[in-house]
Specification:
The complex is a heterotetramer, with two copies of chain A and two copies of chain B. By secondary structure, chain A is of the alpha/beta class. Chain A contains twelve helices and seven strands. The two termini of chain A are about 30 Å apart. Chain B is an alpha/beta fold. Chain B is about 35% helix and about 20% strand. Chain B is built from twelve helices and 14 strands. In chain B, the strands form three sheets. Chain B has a seven-stranded mixed β-sheet, sandwiched between helices. In chain B, strands 9-11-10-13-14 form a five-stranded mixed β-sheet, with helices on both faces. In chain B, β10, α8 and β11 form a beta-alpha-beta unit. Classes of the chains: A alpha/beta, B alpha/beta. Chains A and C meet through α6 and α7 of A and α3, α4 and α5 of C. The structure holds thiamine diphosphate (2 copies) and magnesium ion (2 copies). One thiamine diphosphate sits at the interface of chains A and B.
């Protein structure tokens, strides 16, 4: 679809086909409902451990992944359910992972913080803040060397931007002109610590200057704005012009994790951001531009509800791992035969 | 339980986390050089609520929330310790110390030696460690053996609230870097804790239970498990002696060897990965000592599985020694069926 | 010396460094997915001239000089290994791996497990290690025990040029992360190396010298020292069996236990710090096995001193086991005067 | 001395007293001769290990330390001899350290890469590239909390600017407005790797923008320029306004270390930089402004020669450590008594 500028028409409407836009809305609802379902399961004691919900950040996850194809890759974070769904994961297998079942993406070994979907190019959530940044650069190095044409989109939070790994990763991506897009989801806090208290600059995008790469700030609750910024950045990456830094300004409605008492922010602040809910906003845009009708939106939401309910039921009925298999998958069973056979690290039919 | 506090001090029940907080409170009140550093230790109160409300009492200048910068934060603590402050640095999870090994091992541990004794680095670091919280492989490790391998560091692993407080105050009095490994599942456990200031000496194990049939040397969360197992075994006529190592660098050799000379049988129980975990050192230390001649059976180790910690709760439990495992191993050892 | 190369392959004398370079050359020529990464490995040829002129042959795209960014560099290698490349990552000194433990231990070692077996991380890392170069405490460590404590990693320590080549090629064939610890003082040592491609199996120790009076299990630079000591001791009527462990994770239990069952006496020699160094694991492994019953004497460990490595050459020598120390310990053990 | 601008008169001449300027020139010669003496001793096999010479960088070390008092602190690098001398160390004890003697600054335990002089505020060279950066921030934190008024000057190289420690340290110094000056000695190479190949920006000073701190580039072979930049930065630090980044553009004449074959740079490049020798340049400035006469300059050089010769003789005659003392100083002998007594980490009479 030609990208001709039309006044007041958002980029996404101009740039994507209606079914793509419909799919994006569907994914936003799916993320919201997934997070609510996860929260509910946790409250009922069905899930153990902890979890980091991305309610309020749906536009950021879905918008950033819109420019990507299946063979493009992402690295995700501890707050990764949205990224995972945006990149096309099956919510039933995600819930199965939460429930610790063999049917889960990690066969119950990883849980919320390690869901990956390598076949769909999702190299995985990460329990280590900043851990995915150099890994994304490595994926981009593979893409460049192997000529796959893939772009890697690297999600990370505002808190991660103060890790040394951020600095080292962005510098290497820049000097080697690698096809990677750094997508900082700035939700104003790393756990309890605001960016004002943790970060010397007002906008994380400003740090792009230290790596001679473009840095842009966008409204992270505006799906179209995110998609546009990542389209630009990934086009640049595909053209061999190197990495970009996109800062998506958004907000998490829930606490950092289940034990958060929200002492570091005000109810008013939370309420103000909840009023800027990215989902109805995008739905309204679609309705306003005639992509969907209001009843169609409601149907999409209902569809998502049903899909989540089915996913939870699937997960509950899943198979518990056999404790005798505790040490299985620590190592790869049989050494790969020869060096010229296909023994790539990706064993799931994924593009390399 | 051996108690190093003044005999007259009043005892109260405190949780392990509260005992640590009380120690930090005492130190902050007594000594203006003491500062706390870490991620979300201020208004959040710490990921495990160990620092709690201390920021209200001492302010943000002394209870310092760092950015998420473990290497830099640890290095700032090293530099501060070198120049007059007494930092207590909290890693949010011990797993994240993997980012800071450079500053801990190359700098803090070695500076005094490399500078020919011209300086000391009075640094205290706290590492919430261990599995059992369902947080999976990157939030559940027990890496204390790495640190116990490093000359220049002292490493402690309290198992009771009283020791958690006493060892933290001892660490602060110590001129050298002291690493404190705190098992996350211990934070909510309760125990009698003396009021006021006292120290638990670094380098001294505690003989928690006497017995004649075998010696169980345990660390951290494995101490209450070993004690529970020993109680149960007593009913079966097996008298297990239980030693809480408390300090893992330097190890209290005398206490362990004396016990093994008496019982002739040794079981080491620790949560870290079995291979090259703490029990390897305890076993080797005994096997090369004169206590070797007193051994009536192989030295048995119960350590963590040779795998990352899995998420699924049943697998997670299976990955580290449980009370039943200790009982079974002790039974086997005592009855000679190894 | 056990040789795993095809019997018909021609042998030449190569240095340890040349043998490693030859292995990398073969891999680069055979497999377009192989890339080398590290600091100053290109035109400089590597701090120890191991990569040498490979950049001229394969270009800067495949012999990649990284910025001085150990954590990021290691992470890039992990990401590349996960997505189709076969990186061989060189740390300039193993000490600098303290900056990269996060990526090695939390990511490379655990990714496969955490993802339920969906991926492998075919990553090879090389660590120039050890003391003896006068570079002092931050450039002389032997940290291999840390890595051998980590499930998900494989760890090798070649002692001969032939094994250095064979283990590197085996590491490249291996689907999982393999860490290669290379003692800097070995780089210039020479030995017969078969031409062409062959692999030395990971996980197999080498029985370097047979004997009946005691078993010496040694690693890396301690292997030639132990062999020299054994020759000398033979003249005194002491027949020492010498095992080169070669792989330290997983350890070749069978070879070690079989030898101890035969000799009844065990001496472990390693350069890493004694406490919780490799010898602790060897000793504990034997002490808990059925070989325990064959032991006629305590298990002796000769490891590095409980200090950082000092700069002064005499002190530096004193900090790690020397041939004379091995002789004395072996004599004591064989003659029962422990 | 009042800092009134006078056309064409360099800052140093305007700002410092003649004896200070004379002392600066003396230190520059002392550094040059020290390095030459060290090199010579190494060639003769009198010193083992490796060493990193700073010949060509003397103006940078001496100029940067001119604004500092004894109670100010520095952290140094593997290429630290110049910094050490600039901060007032005794070259005899430095040589003794090289020779591994008890009379050395580290009693022979540290060697070239670990010389420190805590009494003079030199917290030490460092074998780890970037290792000193967070330590300097820690020293600045102490100064701020304890109200000592001290500034910490943190030396590091261009290579170190790509370490995560750089990023984390500068960010923390900035958000806490600590009294620290980051002094990057950009000598164009980290070992064999040029800044063009390692660093995404053209000038490292540009990275200051990522920490909202001032960043300036100065001619590192011009003592006056360096001194001026560090005076400005340390005044800012003392005023509580926080850190600065100063990039000193200079060049090392010798190889990275003793094993360097200089394959990564041209003879012409080296020659061009040698023509910009900072020592005669500063000497000439002093003569031109009537601070010294040419014979006085010659006398200072001769003095330095003599001092180095005496230092080497002292070192050669030093005491070898007793191998029985191998594990002494791993730990501090007796625990410090109580928390209120002076048990600071600095045990050498240094200001804390
Ligand atoms: C290296 C590391 N340090 C600390 C943590 C603990 N932790 C988990 S999430 C988090 C906050 C991360 O903030 P940000 O990057 O902004 O992501 P957000 O949670 O806001 O999505 C912290 C401190 C961690 N997991 N890893
Ligand atoms: C963490 C770490 N990585 C690598 C090295 C090896 N090394 C020592 S000096 C050096 C180059 C440093 O370059 P730069 O910071 O520019 O300082 P210069 O040598 O130019 O003075 C390297 C790579 C080291 N000592 N520490
Ligand atoms: Mg955030
Ligand atoms: Mg340089």
């Amino acid at each position: 679809m030609p990208d001709t500028a039309q006044d007041n028409t958002p980029f996404a409407i101009r740039h994507y086909r209606p079914d793509t836009l419909r799919g994006a809305l569907r994914k936003m609802y799916l993320i919201r409902k997934f997070e609510e379902g996860a929260e509910d399961s946790y409250m009922r004691g069905l899930i153990h451990g902890t979890m980091h919900l991305s309610i309020g950040q749906e536009a950021s996850a879905v918008g950033a992944c819109l420019p990507l194809g299946d063979h493009d890759m992402i690295t995700s974070t501890h707050r990764g359910h949205g990224h995972c769904i945006a990149k096309g994961a099956d919510v039933a297998r995600m819930f199965a992972e939460f429930f610790g079942k063999e049917e889960g993406y990690c066969r119950g070994r990883g849980g919320s913080m390690h869901i990956a979907d390598v076949a769909k190019g999702n190299l995985g959530a990460n329990g280590i803040v900043g851990g995915g940044l150099p890994i994304a650069v490595g994926a981009a190095l593979s893409a460049k060397r192997l000529g796959s044409g893939a772009v890697t989109l690297c999600f990370f939070g505002d808190g991660a931007n103060n890790e040394g790994a951020f600095h080292e990763a962005l510098n290497m991506a820049a000097i080697w002109a690698l096809p990677v897009v750094f997508l900082c989801e700035n939700n104003r806090y790393g756990m309890s610590t605001s960016t004002e208290r943790s970060t010397a600059v007002a906008a994380i995008a400003q740090r792009a200057a230290a790596y001679a790469m473009p840095g842009v700030e966008v409204d992270g609750n505006d799906l179209s704005a995110i998609a546009e910024a990542v389209e630009t950045a990934s086009a640049r990456a595909r053209a061999g012009a190197g990495p970009s830094l996109v800062e998506s300004r958004t907000y998490r409605w829930r606490g950092h994790s289940k034990s958060d008492r929200n002492r570091y922010r005000s109810k008013d602040e939370i309420a103000a951001w909840m009023a800027r809910d990215p989902i109805p906003r995008f739905a309204q845009t679609l309705v306003a531009h005639g992509v969907l009708t209001q009843p169609e939106v409601a149907a999409i939401e209902a569809e998502a509800d049903a899909e989540i309910a089915a996913a939870i039921a699937f997960a509950k009925a899943g198979t518990d791992p056999d404790p005798d298999h505790l040490t299985r998958d620590v190592y790869t069973p049989s050494p790969m035969a020869g060096p010229v056979q296909d023994g790539s690290g990706r064993q799931d039919g994924a593009p390399a | 339980m051996k108690m190093d506090a003044p005999a007259e001090a009043a005892l109260r029940e405190l949780s392990f986390a509260e005992a640590i907080r009380e120690a930090m409170d005492i130190a902050l009140a007594e000594d203006p050089r003491v500062v706390l550093m870490g991620e979300d230790i201020g208004v959040y109160g710490g990921a495990f609520q160990v620092t709690g409300d201390l920021v209200r009492k001492y302010g943000e200048e002394r209870v310092i929330d760092t950015p998420i910068s473990e290497l830099g934060g640890a290095g700032v603590a090293v530099g501060a310790a070198l120049t007059g402050l007494r930092p207590i640095f909290e890693f949010q999870f011990s797993d994240f110390a993997t980012l800071a090994m450079e500053q801990i091992v190359n700098q803090a541990a070695k500076l005094r030696y490399m500078l020919g004794g011209a300086v000391s680095v009075p640094l205290v670091m706290r590492f919430p460690a261990g599995s059992g919280t369902g947080a999976a492989a990157q939030h559940s490790q027990s890496l204390e053996a790495w640190f116990a391998h490093v000359p220049g560091l002292k490493v402690v692993q309290p198992a009771t609230p009283a020791d958690a407080k006493g060892l933290l105050l001892a660490a602060l009095d110590d001129p050298d870097p002291v690493m404190i490994f705190e098992h996350k599942l211990l934070y909510k456990t309760k125990g009698a804790v003396p009021e006021g200031r006292y120290t638990t000496p670094i380098g001294q194990a505690a003989l928690c239970r006497e017995g004649t049939d075998l010696t169980i040397v345990a660390t951290s969360l494995m101490v209450p498990k070993a004690l529970a197992a020993a109680s149960l075994l007593a009913g079966e006529g097996i008298a297990a002696e239980v030693i809480d190592l408390r300090t893992i660098r330097p190890i209290d050799r005398d206490t362990v060897l004396a016990s093994v000379r008496k019982t002739g049988r040794l079981l080491c129980v620790y949560e870290g990965v079995k291979t090259l975990g703490l029990g390897a050192e305890i076993s080797a230390m005994v096997a090369e000592s004169d206590a070797f001649d007193f051994l009536d059976a192989p030295i048995i180790r119960l350590g963590g599985a040779e795998s990352p910690i899995p998420y699924n709760p049943a697998l997670e439990k299976a990955a580290v020694p449980q009370q039943a495992d200790i009982e079974a191993a002790a039974r086997g050892l005592a009855r000679g069926a190894v």
